Amino acid sequence: MLYAGFMSSALPPFPMPQEPLDVLRPQEPGAPSDEPCLRADAARNRARLLEAAARLIAEHGVAGVTMEAVAAAAHVGKGTVFRRFGDRTGLLMALLDHSARQLQADFVSGPPPLGPGAPPLERLRAFGVAVLYRSAEQLDLQLAAQPEATRRFTHPALGALRTHVTMLLRQIVPDADCDLLAQTLLGSLDPALIHHLTRQCGMPLERLEAGWVDLVSRVTRTPPPR
């Protein structure tokens, strides 16, 4: 493994209100002074629901996560869970979004080679391996939370990954169609493909890691790492 050690299978602690968990509107003149407290309560409730869902996954797998089970584990009414997340897919996506924030923090401001400070080619190699192992560790959750086809590629978390890969490609191969190349590279990291290769074809993750590094070398017309 070249870079897999940067990723952890455990979700980081669920944040309190300082993270943008909900879109907060500016307080209007004359609005009640306790509005910030209400928003803080909503953020705490959201974090508590996500913690309950994460516990259920750890104990029973993704199949054990239902809106009813999360409500019972968090000691709230089922309607509260539906109001917060819309449906089961929305709840699972919220869990993945939280994990995606940690991955984004790693490649935006973490240590090299995944984060700044390494050459763009090394960062691109490290990025793919980090995504590969993160997906493998959370594969059941990733598959259960995938939006339907017409929304899959417009999700903000995927957009952040695509923007990052495109930026690195423009530094490595500025004469290429980097927008399309980024889509192609990310396609090789699709959770459904990883599921097929690892669980249905029995390929070890080390082979997929080597395949990613080889693919990057071929796409960018650069020699493989020594």
Q: What is the compact description of this entry?
A:
This protein is mainly alpha-helical. It has 11 helices and no strands. It is elongated.
Textual characterization of the structure:
The protein contains 11 helices and no strands. The chain is mainly α and 226 residues long. Mean pLDDT is 82; it is low at 1-34.
Descriptive terms for the model:
single chain; 226 residues; mainly alpha; disordered N terminus
Q: Please compute the radius of gyration using only Cα atoms.
A: 20 Å
For the largest beta-sheet, the strand count, sense and barrel status come to: none
**What would the average pLDDT be, to the nearest integer?**
82
Unreliable sequence segments: 1-34
Helix content, binned percent:
55-70%
What is the molecular shape? elongated
**Beta-sheet strand percentage?**
under 5%
N-to-C series of helices and strands: HHHHHHHHHHH
Number of extended strands = 0
Cα-to-Cα separation, first versus last residue = 14 Å
Q: By helix and strand content, what is the structural category?
A: mainly alpha
Number of helices: 11
